[in-house]
Amino acid sequence: MSGREWSGAALPAGSGALRSRWRAASLAAGWPFPGDWPGGAVDAVCAAVVTGADGLVPLLADLGAARAEAGVGLAGALDDLAALHAASAPGAAAGLDPDAVPNWMVRAVALGWAEVTARHAIGREVRDPLTGLTTPGYLRTRLHEVYRWARAAGRTPADEHALITVSLRVPDHGHGYPRSMGMVLVAEVLRAVFDAGETVALLRASTAAVLAPRDRTLGVRCARVRHLAERKLAADPALRVPRPDPVSVSLEVLPAEPDQACALLAALT
Predict the structure, then answer these.
(1) How far apart are CA 221 and CA 190, in angstroms?
(2) Which DSSP string do the residues of 62-103 spell out, in sequence order?
(3) pTM surpassing 0.85?
């Protein structure tokens, strides 16, 4: 619950009537989630409107954020705001007109909605929702960081880091389910073996990659990935893992330039 949601024992006089009018107007305008419409942010806005209290802008931002958290699109959130504006008009006789809502109210709700949506979007873009591995875009970002560090230190990227690819040879049976579940198991192994800050990314449905420091344990860890992954896959009869070598682990040499490294990733995907 937001710290700006209404927390009093009872809403100020008139708040309940405003909330009822607002809800009715919003439902009439096409609000798709009747059961999700109420909330602390709604109560706080109603209390501020009927009392004329200062600070309505942050409360409207909280309302926009609450609508975004509930999965409501921006158009729906602004239609709901127009319903509030109509319901709070003198005599509540004004029809719902989104263009009549003051810009400062629209801005507050839109910014609150956008902040939550952007935060969720960043989370989705950085990690694959099924395996939890990072995306190719994030891996490319990390590669550029590694190359900048190497250039500043006067080192060669290939001497300091390695790119390991792990490919899975499991058929998708037409719908991708067995292969996808196989990659979930492989992802668990990769996170367990490369657990010291390495970047582990999903390049495609059946291939993952690891950007790791090049040290004396690298070969041992690559062998451990193959062993543990094959054991996990063999333990699931639904996967129908081919034999031999259902998992391929390869060590790729980083090229001299970051653009070449990104081209290498594109070739692998």
Answers:
(1) 9
(2) HHHHHHHHTT--HHHHHHHHHHHHHHTSGGG-PPP-GGGS-H
(3) no
Q: Residues 165, 203: contact at Cβ < 8 Å?
A: yes
Q: Which domains does the chain have, with CATH numbers?
A: 15-125 (no CATH), 136-268 (3.30.70.270)
Q: Is 14 helix (H, G, I), strand (E, B) or coil?
A: coil
Whether the CB-CB separation of 83 and 36 falls below 8 Å is answered with no
Give the confidence band of 128 by pLDDT, cuts at 50, 70, 90.
confident
> Between vectors from CA 141 to CA 247 and to CA 189, what angle results, nearest 5°?
25
Q: How far apart are CA 247 and CA 80, in angstroms?
A: 52
Structure tokens at 109: 């709700």
Give the mean pLDDT of the chain: 84
For the chain, how many helices (H) and strands (E)?
A: 10, 4
The span from the CA of 5 to the CA of 59, in Å, is 8
